[in-house]
Specification:
CATH architecture: Sandwich
CATH class: Mainly Beta
Distance between the termini: 49 Å
Number of strands: 16
Strand content: over 45%
Oligomer: single chain
Largest sheet: 9 strands, mixed
Structural class: alpha+beta
CATH topology: Immunoglobulin-like
Order of helices and strands: HEEEEEEEHHEEEEEEEEE
Number of domains: 1
CATH superfamily: Immunoglobulins
Shape: globular
Number of helices: 3
């Protein structure tokens, strides 16, 4: 009996690992602090904040934009590589300021067996979706999910702080800082407004975490949070390092090809 329980636990962990690896999309530069008039290559991680499982092909990109002191402008798709196991984005900075980079990835379909879909919902904090499946007796039903992704990252170019971090890109799912992350210190709190189709996403689960600086890829404790009535979530900056904030908005739909639709939003930054 003990061996059976152990095997089941290991199986559940394997499901969680594979589900987590399959979904998140992050920009993770080597450093978010860069010099002006310099060329940088930003890894695009499709998997976790530490490891990418696959590259993202250019035909999936609906929008690729940068906001810098000169305003918002599109980024040429030739700056984006497609090769597995990860894409990269090459940029050249100009004047000093706080930059924002974002992309919208077109929808795709994902099908999972019921057990794996339930584990994925639990991992992403989507307990309300999981409880509805339980209440309807659908825990064993496989998913047919249409998903899209909207990652952003912030860069501090030179010393001058600007308000470009707060520009709303207009993506279907988006996370917008309420103050400049690069002016924050460890021990402070940083607010973010979570948006769904331009409207505040109220009372919704959000996850925050990251990796600490130094040798290895030391994980920062993940924070399981919720937005308030105005769609604002507040993250405690417990340590220096590269941080992310993310949410997955999931709805049940009734279409021939899909029974769920999700929109994934992430934003990454760094605290010194």
């Amino acid at each position: 009996m003990a061996i059976t329980r152990r095997i089941s636990a290991l199986g559940a962990l394997a499901i969680l690992a594979s589900v987590s690896d399959a979904h998140d999309l992050f920009f993770r530069p080597d450093s978010h602090f860069v010099a002006s008039d310099s060329k940088i290559v930003i890894p695009v991680l499709s998997g976790t904040f530490s490891k990418s499982e696959n590259g993202i092909t250019r035909d999936r990109i609906e929008d690729l934009s940068i906001v810098d002191p000169s305003g918002r402008r599109p980024i040429e798709l030739t700056s984006w590589t497609e090769a597995d196991p990860r894409s990269t984005l090459t940029l050249t900075t100009s004047g000093e300021g706080t930059y924002a980079v974002g992309t919208a990835i077109r929808p795709r379909m994902l099908s999972l067996p019921g057990e794996e879909f339930n584990a994925y919902l639990k991992e992403e904090g989507l307990d309300h979706v999981l409880e509805r499946r339980r209440a309807l007796g659908k825990l064993g039903e496989p998913s047919r999910e249409r998903y899209s992704k909207y990652p952003k990252t912030l860069l501090q170019v030179g010393e001058k702080r600007t308000a470009d971090f707060s520009v709303v890109f207009g993506y279907e799912a988006e996370i917008v800082p309420l103050s400049n992350p690069f002016s924050k210190r460890v021990g402070e709190t940083l607010g973010f407004r979570c948006l769904l189709k331009g409207h505040p996403l109220a009372l919704y689960p959000v996850l925050a975490g990251g990796r600490a600086p130094g040798a290895g890829d030391v994980r920062l404790p993940q924070q399981r949070l919720s937005t308030d009535a105005d769609g604002v979530v507040r993250v405690e900056l417990t340590a220096p390092g590269q941080w992310y904030v993310k949410f997955v908005h999931m709805t049940e739909i009734d279409e021939p090809e899909a029974n769920h639709e999700s929109r994934w939003a992430t934003v990454s930054f760094e605290i010194r």
